[in-house]
Amino acid sequence: MDLNKIILSDEARKELVNDRRWLHAHPEEGWCEFETTWFIVRRLRSLGLEVLAGIDVIEPDAVMGRNEALVLAAQQRAIEHGVPKEFLESLSGYTGAMAILRTGRPGPVTALRFDIDALPIEETDDPQHEANAGHFRSQNPGFSHACGHDGHAAIGLALCRWLSENREQLKGTVKILFQPAEEGVRGAAAMAAKGIVDDVDWFAGGHIGCSAKLGDVGVSHFGYLATTKFDLEFFGQSAAAGSPEKGRSALMCAAAACLSLGSLPGHSQGITRVQIGKFISGTGRNIIADHAYM
């Protein structure tokens, strides 16, 4: 088909805007996107697409950075907001979804990924802020879609609608992944480990904004904003602070490593960016720390 004819109807454009605003008003952090997953799954089912969600798209053994207490609280909030218990039970405690369009005609397997999680950042009270002026600011205190994943998920849903409406003109299989926990580099590995993209020939992801201006599209074929995540542990010997020669401070060692890493380029124009986002050490002010974690 002519790719220049891939356009949305006025109705679809209006739906995309409304979806983005609903998602913006209901931000959920990584591994807690139960309302978001329900919103997505309902729409995918209405489009007649094959849908997998929760435990069917997530490999628990590959999950990183999941807080069980936060997950349980998010599930309770979802129930209070009308998400069916039966649906939550079917997820087995995990979020995220995938739509599949099988055309029945020979062709490649293409996958497109859209992330769905928000950040633990309070939304601004500035009355000029678009979400405040438009009355769709975050309804979840302490959280907001500050990185644009509300837009990503809405675009993914609009694409699913287009695929459903144009399936007779397509070939092969298309998989649309709605990935949880992108922030903190956590969700992608757990989806890939499930095996749901093992048969994919072409895979693409995207991000709004970045260096692209309104009306522009920037294409990078490899490694754009790719990240690697490390957890570092330091082990020493505890002792009373009054006798420091009897101990080995894991805290001091970790702090030295932290400062050394901080000497690497600290701006976005460098070839690399290294940040320590969390540092935990010590048990008391008068005890030499025998353990540190970054």
Topology:
Blueprint: H1 10-25, H2 34-46, E1 50-53, H3 68-80, H4 85-91, E2 97-102, E3 109-115, H5 130-133, H6 149-165, E4 173-179, H7 187-193, E5 202-205, E6 233-235, H8 250-261, E7 280-281, E8 291-293
Parallel strand pairs: 3-4, 3-5
Antiparallel strand pairs: 1-2, 2-4, 6-8, 7-8
Helix pairs in contact: 1-6
Would you kindly provide a written description of the structure presented here, covering whatever features stand out?
- The protein is of the alpha/beta class and 294 residues long.
- The protein has helices at residues 10-25, 34-46, 68-80, 85-91, 130-133, 149-165, 187-193, 250-261, and strands spanning 50-53, 97-102, 109-115, 173-179, 202-205, 233-235, 280-281, 291-293.
- The strands form two sheets. The chain has a five-stranded mixed sheet with strand order 1-2-4-3-5, sandwiched between helices. It has a three-stranded antiparallel sheet with strand order 6-8-7, with helices on one face.
- The N and C termini lie far apart (51 Å).
- The model has no long low-confidence stretch (mean pLDDT 93).
What can be said about this structure in brief?
It is built from eight helices and eight strands, in the order H-H-E-H-H-E-E-H-H-E-H-E-E-H-E-E. The chain has 294 residues and is of the alpha/beta class. It has two domains: 203 residues, 3-Layer(aba) Sandwich (Aminopeptidase); 61 residues, Alpha-Beta Plaits.
